[in-house]
Design brief:
Elements: H1 3-20, H2 24-33, H3 47-54, H4 56-81, H5 83-98, H6 111-121, H7 123-140, H8 143-160, H9 165-181, H10 183-186
Helix pairs in contact: 1-4, 1-5, 3-4, 4-5, 4-6, 5-6, 5-9, 6-7, 7-8, 8-9
Length: about 190
């Protein structure tokens, strides 16, 4: 890779992080109601707390935005630099969502953005994981349990489905980060 390509790729990865770090739930609630989502419910700036804080219509808007924060960087990365850049951009986007520079690196848990990455790179596996998430939620009533089950299943499916090695390594790291972010949901269970 020449220096110019490296610089373009580095700029794209930084842009993916910044896109991922845009705190949609925080911004919407602050602009629409003058409230800080970090002071409501779980204090998380992700989709689940957005539904609690803003209701289903705006919560769904946050969910859709968080999914797009995973989809867009992957698709742009794949178009510009191929598979390796696609997953690296996805990893940067989810790191931005979980550790947003705009909110002192305290963001969401990464489920919706991780789903976006999966839908962009392996849509069938992403849809299977989303279905598993829904079934687990119906059976348990717990979003965290559904999220961790879907993330674990997705990581397993990626590992056994002959994806490119870079996808398997980076996506497994992403899923482990997402599961780690949910650790407090189970500490008192």
């Amino acid at each position: 890779m020449d220096t110019v390509s490296f610089i373009y790729y580095a700029i794209l990865v930084i842009a993916a992080y910044l896109l991922g770090s845009f705190p949609t739930a925080y911004f919407l609630l602050k602009k629409m109601r003058g409230l800080d989502i970090r002071e409501i419910g779980s204090g998380n700036v992700g989709s689940t707390n957005a539904v609690r804080a803003m209701g289903k219509p705006l919560g769904f808007l946050v969910f859709a935005s968080d999914v797009l924060k995973g989809v867009l960087p992957c698709l742009i990365g794949k178009w510009i630099g191929g598979e390796a850049l696609a997953i690296i951009c996805g990893g940067a986007a989810i790191c931005g969502h979980i550790f947003p520079v705009w909110l002192q690196f305290k963001g969401g848990k990464g489920i919706a953005t991780g789903l976006g990455i999966a839908l962009a790179l392996f849509p069938v596996l992403g849809l299977i994981a989303l279905t598993l998430w829904g079934v687990t939620l119906l059976l348990t009533g717990y979003v965290a349990a559904a999220s961790v089950a879907a993330a674990g299943a997705l990581a397993t499916m990626v590992l056994v489905s002959s994806q490119p090695p870079v996808y398997m390594v980076v996506f497994t790291l992403i899923i482990l980060l997402v599961i780690w972010k949910h650790r407090n949901n189970f500490s008192n269970a």
